[in-house]
Design goal:
Blueprint: H1 4-13, H2 19-28, E1 30-34, E2 39-41, E3 49-55, E4 57-63, E5 69-76, H3 82-89, E6 97-100, E7 104-110, H4 112-120, H5 122-148, H6 151-166, E8 170-171, H7 175-181, H8 186-198, E9 202-205, E10 208-211
Antiparallel strand pairs: 1-7, 2-6, 3-7, 4-5, 4-6, 8-10, 9-10
Helix pairs in contact: 1-2, 6-8, 7-8
The protein binds a DNA duplex (13 and 13 nucleotides) through residues 151, 174-176, 184-188, 190-191, 193-194, 204, 206-207.
Length: 214
DNA sequence: ACATTAAGTGATT
DNA sequence: AATCACTTAATGT
């Protein structure tokens, strides 16, 4: 019987992994459906599984003691969380928080399988290495943005990234949420958005910002 | 109609 | 660019 889970796994991961590994994934992985805005992992939570995204998208944020956030990067289907990779080597606690951007499907792999599969499957090894690579690239991009871009440029990049990720020019967020993701304040974001609107780059609605282009 | 939440504004640091 | 204090606008009940 082909379950939805099997379909999802072979459709999303069949190109990346060898057949035997796909079968292992189907046998061992636990499928988990996530609601939009659901928190998947909290900071300090013990990591028991390696999540691989089959459908949807997740945002990964850092958080300080005061609960203030900073968006690190997004992960999409086929991706796994590099932070989890790093943490699970020592089976440590999560350094980040992960929140679903939309309803998503993920497959959870018990951490024990990491080592077994590393030894057994070359496609698994290169997938893990590749994931590290991509994630570090993304982190560097984020660091560059924080260090070198002006907030208005960062804001526009944020909106465009968001739009690209969800495949729509209509970004559904409040100014407050943007401020939190960029670790700025609501008033500042509102003013910068106003400027972008005046420049004709966006249209502002309540709870929604419409990009003119990506 | 009223309360709540989102967004806009002017002044100050 | 951040914060405060306040206003206005939109939305839910």
């Amino acid at each position: 019987m082909t379950s939805i889970k099997n379909e999802l796994i072979s459709n999303e991961l069949g190109y990346i992994f060898e057949e035997e590994l796909v079968n292992d994934l189907i046998k061992i992985g636990k499928l988990k459906s996530i609601r939009a805005d659901e928190t998947i992992i909290q900071i300090g939570e013990k990591i028991q599984f390696l999540p691989i995204i089959l459908d949807g998208s997740i945002k990964v944020v850092r958080e300080n003691e005061r609960g203030e956030e900073l968006l690190l990067y997004y992960i999409e289907s086929g991706d796994t969380c590099a932070m989890t990779l790093q943490c699970c080597m020592k089976s440590a606690l999560s350094e980040v928080k992960a929140i679903a951007m939309e309803p998503s499907e993920i497959v959870m792999i018990p951490l024990e399988m990491m080592e077994v599969w590393m030894a057994k499957y070359s496609s698994w090894r290169s997938y893990i290495l590749q994931s590290y690579h991509v994630r570090i690239q993304e982190l560097i991009e984020t660091i560059d943005a924080i260090a070198f871009m002006r907030l208005d440029e960062r804001l526009l990049k944020y909106l465009k990234d968001h739009a690209k990720l969800l495949g729509t020019l209509e970004v559904i967020v409040t100014h407050q949420q943007i401020a939190e993701d960029l670790h700025s304040s609501r008033v500042v974001i509102s003013r910068l958005l106003k400027q972008l609107e005046t420049k004709g780059q966006i249209i502002i609605n309540r709870n929604k910002i419409i990009l003119k282009s990506i």
